[in-house]
Specification:
seven-stranded antiparallel β-sheet; alpha+beta; 399 residues; globular
């Protein structure tokens, strides 16, 4: 059996086969014989749940391989399979990454191989999300507790609206689509497998609002996700007709750049406050808890020429904190935000992400406004009660 094993390793080393065919993870150790693709262990687990007529999974290292099996893999491979099964992927679909949640991976794999939604001859009736209009029930989390209620959601060409029931005529909220972002990989989505985070800017308060929803099955939540992306992309194309599709795709929806707990120190105080931070492109928000509907504060980051930068050199009185760094913001009392990470690795990740966000910002000082939220009031920077700094994230194509 040494000869088939040696040939299999040669096939695995070929171009395209060094990464998982479905999520892109390096050095896949599993394979689907009849599909002829190499897979990571997570995606292989999902393939095992498909019919064996669709995908027969084997371990590259642990299972026995015959010459016929190896020849089948050599005749296909990830690159050739991609040309067939991903020949017609709509812009609204976001392929999963190695860090994607299970529901995102599974629905991508089922769409590719089970429903064959992306083949050259794909039936458009299997792709209702390409219309960009949808309505149906989703379960929505209440603002302040883990209670979920069924709500009737309606996606139109320019808004996402939800009602208490499908019989109601007055909506609970109607959100302009320009302000909507949806992600399958945000924080607070572990309670339900088929969940999604909807984030948008509240026009009345100026605050970002997070809404957590889930569907009864994975296909339904992915269809909602893709439908919203379709509608948002179409709206952006109408608003910015001269912009490239690549630029608009990055604005349709996005995953958060980085999120996790950090400790911050308010001005004039010596005690740290633990908060949950989310870096969303060039907007930094922080919350008391990661499931909170509204942030305690927001910072719309600007460029280095505007006075924004990250510094690992901290004031002498704080140097005994090993994993501390400073986020410098113009007109900030004390020069910046002292932020404390839980580990060196987390500190390095935040310093890198924030620095890159600032470097990628253009000098547009008129777009940011420094303020803070306190007792549901919007307090301008410079107030004596200004314990945290915030800025309203404006939709802007150039940032």
């Amino acid at each position: 059996m040494a000869e088939p094993r040696g040939k299999l390793n040669e096939v695995k080393a070929a171009e395209g086969n060094q990464f998982c065919a479905d999520c892109g993870e390096e050095n896949p150790e599993w394979a689907s014989i009849n599909l002829g693709v190499f897979l990571c262990i997570s995606c292989a687990g999902i393939h095992r749940r498909l019919s064996v007529d669709i995908s027969r999974v084997r371990s590259v290292r642990l299972d026995t391989w015959t010459e016929a099996m190896v020849e089948s893999m050599a005749g296909q491979g990830n690159k050739r399979a991609k040309e067939l099964f991903e020949a017609n992927v709509p812009n609204c679909w976001v392929p999963p990454s190695p860090d994607s949640r299970h529901v995102h991976r599974e629905e991508w794999i089922r769409a590719k191989y089970e429903r064959k939604e992306f083949t050259p001859t794909a039936d458009e009736r299997k792709r209702p999300y390409t219309i960009g209009i949808r309505q149906g029930h989703l379960f929505k989390r209440k603002k302040q507790c883990d209670e979920w209620n069924s709500r009737w959601f309606v996606l139109s060409n320019d808004s996402l609206t939800y009602y208490k029931s499908h019989q109601d005529r007055t909506p609970k909220a109607s959100i302009p689509l320009h302000y909507v972002n949806v992600t399958m990989n945000g924080p607070g989505l572990d309670d339900h497998a088929n969940s999604m985070l909807i984030a948008f800017k509240d026009e009345k308060s100026g605050k970002t609002r997070n809404i957590f929803v889930y569907a009864e099955n994975g296909k339904e939540i992915m269809d909602w996700f893709c439908s919203i992306r379709t509608a948002k992309l179409r709206l952006l194309q109408e608003t910015f007709p001269e912009s490239s599709s690549k630029d608009l795709l990055s604005k349709a929806t996005r995953d958060f750049t980085l999120n996790g707990y950090l400790c911050k120190m308010p001005p004039g105080q010596s005690k740290f406050q633990k908060r949950f931070f989310i870096l969303d492109q060039n907007c930094l928000r922080y919350y008391n808890r990661f499931k909170d509907p509204h942030p305690l504060g927001e910072i719309q980051l600007g460029s280095t020429s505007d006075g924004f930068f990250v510094d690992t050199n901290v004031p002498e009185k704080l140097q005994h904190h090993e994993n501390m760094f400073m986020l410098h913001v113009p007109n900030r009392s004390g020069g910046g935000f002292p932020l404390l990470a839980e580990s060196r690795e987390q500190k390095e990740a935040w310093v890198k992400a924030l620095s890159e966000a600032i470097v990628n910002c253009k000098s547009t000082p008129e777009l940011y406004r420094v303020s803070t939220y306190e007792d549901d009031e919007l307090i301008e920077s410079g107030s004596a009660t200004n314990g945290v700094i915030s800025a309203l994230a404006e939709f802007n194509l150039s940032n």
